[in-house]
Amino acid sequence: MRFENDLKECTLCEHRCGVDRVAGELGVCHMAGPIVASRTLHPAPPESYTIFVAGCNFKCVGCQNWTISQFPDNRMAVEGYVDPKSLAQESIRMLESTAGILMGADRIFFSGGEPTIHLPFIEEVVKEARQLRPALKVNFDTNGFMTEKSLKRILNFTTSMTFDIKAFYNDTMRAITGAPVDPVLKNAEIVARTASEKLWEFRIVAVPEVNEDDIEPLCRFLASISKDLPVCFLAFRPNFVLDEHLGATRELMNRCVEQGRLAGLKNVTYAGTSNIPGKVGVLQRKVEGDYSRRGAKMAASYALSKGCNTHPRDCSSCLSMSTCPLKKYLPVRSC
Ligand code: SF4
Ligand code: SF4
Predict the structure, then answer these.
(1) End-to-end Cα, the chain, rounded Å
(2) Whole-angstrom distance, CA of residue 275 vs CA of residue 266
(3) Ligand 2 mean position to 49 CA, how many Å?
(4) Using CA atoms, how far apart are residues 302 and 287, in angstroms rounded to an integer?
(5) Ligand (nearest to CA of 178)
(6) pLDDT tens-digit profile of 108-128?
(7) Among 29, 212, 291, 323, which residue's beta carbon has the most beta carbons within 10 A?
(8) Does the C-beta of 324 come closer than 6 Å to ligand 2?
(9) Domains, the chain, with CATH or none
(10) Is the CB of 184 under 6 A from ligand 1?
(11) Which ligand 1 atom minimizes the distance to the CA of 16?
(12) Does the beta carbon of 117 lie inside 6 Å of ligand 1?
C-alpha cells in the first residue's frame, strides 16, 4: 500500500496509540489496514456517493452504526479492502449515473465508523478521483477526535464536513464514548473559526437521561464562537448498548432547538424519528464516584452492565483494550 507509512506509528487520532498497524498491531480502533464496509448512493443531504469505512476510535454506548463501527470484533460482514483507484473510478461513475444525477448526488461522502482512522487511504481515493474530476466535492463525516495535524490534512481536501459532538462535559463524554471531550471541542472550534465555509453542520445526538444536561452548555459554547453556525440535533434511536433505552421524545427535540435559539444560534434544527419506546437503565453503585453528572452515571451504568469495567471509561489506557467486551456486544434491538 502506498499510504502505509502513516500507519507504522499511528497517531492519526487523539488516542495516539503509536502502534504499528502495518505489522498488525492494534490500537483502540482495532483496525490494521483500511476496510470498506459498504458504499451506496445516499439521498440524505448532502446527497452523495457515500463510502462507509469500517472501524471507529470510539465505543459509543448508543452507536447508531454499530455493525460498522465495532468491526472487526462484532464479526459483522463488510466488503473488505478496495483499491483506491478503482474506488475513485466507481465513485465518479456512480455520481454520473442516471440514479446519481436524479438524486442530485454531487460529492463523495466518507462516513463510518470514523474515517479519520483511515485518513491516508481516503486521501489516496480523493487524489485519484480528482484526477478524473478536478472539481469533485468531498464530505468528511467525523466524531472530531483527530489530532490537529490530521485535521489540517482533512481540511485540505474537504469541501464539506459533518461534525458530531456527543457531549459537552468530560464525564458525560467519557461515559458515552470512552474518550475525553477536550480534543473534540478544540477541533470543533478550529473548524468553526477557520473553516466555517466547509461546515455542513454540527450534529448532536440527543439521548434522553444521558446527555440532556450537556445540551445547553454545548449550545452556549457554539454560539460563543458564532451565532451563525449550523447545528442539527438528531433524535436518539435505541441501539447498541442502549438497545433497550427509550428513544428521544419530540418534547426533548423541541427543547434542544429551543435551547439553541435561547443561546442565540440562528441556524438550529432537529431531525430523525422521535418517540421510540423503551425504558431507563438502572444506576449502578460501582460507577457512583467516577462520574459527577447523573447522565454520565447512566451511560456508564449501561457500559458496565455489558462488561466495561474501566471507570471513568478510558479506552486508550484500558487494560482490557485488546479484548474489549463492549465491542463484541450484539444488541437485542436496533431501531
Ligand atoms: S485509535 Fe487512533 S491513534 Fe489509535 S491506532 Fe486507531 S487511528 Fe491510530
Ligand atoms: S472495556 Fe476498556 S476498552 Fe472497552 S469500552 Fe470499556 S474502557 Fe473502553
Answers:
(1) 38
(2) 26
(3) 33
(4) 10
(5) 2
(6) 999 999 999 999 999 999 999
(7) 29
(8) yes
(9) 4-322 (3.20.20.70)
(10) no
(11) 3
(12) yes
